[in-house]
Amino acid sequence: MSHVEQIKLLRELGAATVHEAQGAKGALDSGMKPIDPSSRLAGPALTVEMRPGDNLMLHYALLKAKPGDVLVVDAKGFVEAGPWGDVMTHAAQKLGIAGLVIHGAVRDANQIIDMGFPVFCRGLCIKGTAKNQPGKVNVPICIGDVVIHPGDVVVGDRDGLVVVPKAEVEQTLRNAALREEKETAFRKELDAGRTTVELLGLGETLRRFGLE
């Protein structure tokens, strides 16, 4: 399976399934949400470390991005400025960038949604930014307790975001396929009249707590 096909499959599987398939790790905190709940995102991370309230490095990152990349930006959680808006979205779409994940805020949310560009962020803010401060591109960054390396695959949807280390993509896909098969079998058993308590072997645990 090609890398492009892997990315497509991870996107279709969704963040929650991918998170479980790789051992319940790599999830970004629940404060990182899509501005459009219908957004789905998957692609290799082009990482950006930038100063709060300054978006110079985002302009620089657009020079380095390749089609299919996801810009994953550590803006230090600063939400009193919106370093990304509709004009940068237009530029990113022209380059074929798959989406934006920013540990910070954006603005022009309605326009971005109308443009169909997936954006995951910590908040919205109408305030603009300066363009003066240096930063770094394609270096390891940290959002919450998750370290993201350049090329790691980011998967996002309405439920949230998960990061898959690039060396673990194949194993995660194998695990996800097994999980999907198991859940399909569960649904058939439920349709046949069995309960989740039976299927998960929870009867003894419930009895132990007097929950007959």
Automatic annotation (TrEMBL):
It comes from the Bacteria. Signal peptide: none annotated. PANTHER family: 4-HYDROXY-4-METHYL-2-OXOGLUTARATE ALDOLASE 3-RELATED, BLR3842 PROTEIN. This is 4-carboxy-4-hydroxy-2-oxoadipate aldolase/oxaloacetate decarboxylase. It comes from Rhodoplanes azumiensis.
